[in-house]
Every structure is written in C-alpha cells, then in structure tokens.
Write a structure and sequence with these properties.
312 residues; alpha/beta; nine-stranded mixed β-sheet; five-stranded parallel β-sheet
Length: 312
C-alpha cells in the first residue's frame, strides 16, 4: 500500500489552500496520507491540516531554522523523512516548484511535474506543450516518487477529519550557504488569484491601467480576484503577478469572466480547467468564443458597467 507524504505550505500563519487539493491528488493515488508542516508556532495550521478529509496524521517540524520558507533548508529535512514513504507530493506552485526538484535531486530520482490524474500509484497524466497535449507517464517502483500536483486539476477535499498531530524533529544537516534576508510580497484584499472561485480578467482591449478600475469595481461586487492576459501585462496596465496563462498562473475558478481578451492559445492554457467561462469582446470571431460557455459581443466599456449594475 502506498504511503504518501504531502508537504504542506504555511502562508502568513495559515495553511495554504492548495494543500487540500494536493491531498485530493494523494487520495486518487490511494494509500495512507500524512502531511508534514515546517515552520514555527504551527498549532493552528496543524489543526487545520488535521481536519482535511483522508489525512491519517499531521507531522510538525518546528524550529527557528524553519521560520521562513527556504527550499535549501527544507529539502534535506524532507529527504530525511522520504525513506518512510512511497510518494512525496508538493503543490505545483512557487513553493513546490522550488522545493521538489531539490528533493528529487538529493534522492537521485526524477521528478514528475504537474500531475493532472493518477491512474495508479505509478501511472500519471501530465500536460505538455503548454497544455495542448497530455501524456501518461509511468514512474519506476522501488524508490520514492517525488511529484508536484497541478492544483487546477483537483477539487479540494473537505474538512471534516480529525487526524492526530505528532510533533517531529529532524537531524538533517542544514546548509549554510543560503539564508533568509527579506520577503517582499504584494498585499491585496481580494482573493488569491490561484484559489479564487470567481476571476474577472482583462486584456489589451482595456486600453490603459486606469480602465482596469472597471474590472476592480466589478470584482469587488462579485468577491472575485482580478487577472489579466499577457498582452495587458506587457502593456503595463497591471503588474505581472496578475498574469494568467502559459507564462503566468494556471487557474481553475468556478467562474472566469474574460473581458477584452481575444483568447490566444497561451492564455487559454491557463484557464482550460475553469468550470464556466464568460467572454466579452467586440470581435465576434475572437478565439475566446470557441471555448466560452457564454459570450457577449459588444463594447466592453458599455457592457461591463451594465453587468456591474445588474450584479448590484
């Protein structure tokens, strides 16, 4: 039977929402699921992790050395634990993409990236060619499988569990060549783009950063996150942390409203898992309408205020 270790990310003292989706992927693999948390003052975070459905145990590794997320520091500690597990899973976000390769390299195994479906304990689907093709890969048995999980492909598990919490420690030698200096992050009152249930996104047709205020206003009414196409980011309308697509963030909201976005294939690669797509564009032949569930052809500067008025 598989024994799976999910590496949980702690963000601003809270359990990252992506952990529940990684647990869903682990459940699809099948077997005993444990979560490892690294940090300090993990009481509330561990309690939240223990409630996730399907989790058999939560292990906490509290030390001052784990106070800040550093892949170089986390990796040797994870490697030390890996011998007891058949799988070590990470979220396919910045944290996972930074840490998983180090763990795989130290274990001398190949990493499997962006798992979309688990057919068995060793057989997985993952996307390639910017999401235009899906390949099935078979991992060798006999050594730990290190993988990241494509969060957009899984629905978060519920939180009705009550797994035990175990305080653990590590004797792994930590590197001294890397140390934490400072973290600068943009703060927003809006939902995180990668876990938001509703996303309002704009493209180059908005014409300016000032015009994006229409989208922020609509998003406020909907309780939505705001995203953007690469064209809008390249034009300087919004910062690049809002970019959705192949070279931006891959998202899977319940509702995605694309405003003034033509639907380049690189953008579609980031929204293909959205449940419902609404497109607003004056070009009736725009590619976005080929995948949209609902489409409005017309002037976005007229339609968006009308839509906001209906929401109000």
């Amino acid at each position: 039977m598989s024994k799976i270790l999910v590496i949980g990310e702690v963000s601003d003292g809270h359990l990252d929402a992506g952990v529940a989706k990684v647990v869903a992927a682990a459940a699809q693999i099948g077997g005993e699921i444990e979560i490892a948390l690294f940090g300090v003052n993990l009481g509330d975070v561990a309690a939240a992790a223990a409630k996730l459905d399907g989790v058999a145990k939560v292990r906490t590794f509290e030390s001052e050395g784990n106070a800040h997320i550093l892949a170089a520091t986390y990796a040797p500690q994870i490697v030390e634990q890996a011998a007891d597990y058949s799988h070590v899973l990470f979220a396919g976000n910045a944290f996972g993409k930074d840490t998983a390769p180090r763990v795989a390299a130290m274990l001398g195994v190949q990493q499997i990236s962006e798992i979309m479906v688990a057919h068995s304990a060793t057989s997985f689907d993952r996307s390639t060619y910017a999401g235009n093709a899906i390949v099935t890969v078979e991992a060798p048995t006999g050594s730990a499988i290190v993988a990241t999980v494509r969060l957009a492909s899984f629905t978060a598990v519920g939180s009705s569990g009550s797994a035990p919490i175990e305080a653990s420690s590590s004797s792994a030698a930590l590197p001294t060549h890397t140390r934490f200096l400072e973290l600068k992050a943009q703060k927003s009152e809006r939902p995180d783009l990668q876990v938001a249930r509703t996303v309002v996104a704009g493209g180059r047709a908005l014409g300016s950063g000032d015009n994006f205020q229409m989208l922020y206003s609509l998003a406020d009414k909907l309780g939505a996150a705001v995203g953007a196409s690469r064209a809008a980011v390249d034009a300087g309308y919004v910062p690049n942390d809002l970019q959705v697509g192949q070279t931006g963030k891959v998202i899977a909201p319940e509702l995605y409203i694309a405003i003034g976005i033509s639907g380049a294939i690189q953008h579609l690669a980031g929204i293909k898992d959205a449940r419902t797509i609404v497109a607003i564009n004056k070009d009736a032949d725009a590619p976005i309408f080929e995948i949209a569930d609902y489409g409005l052809v017309g002037d976005l500067f007229k339609l968006v205020p009308e839509l906001e008025g209906l929401v109000s």
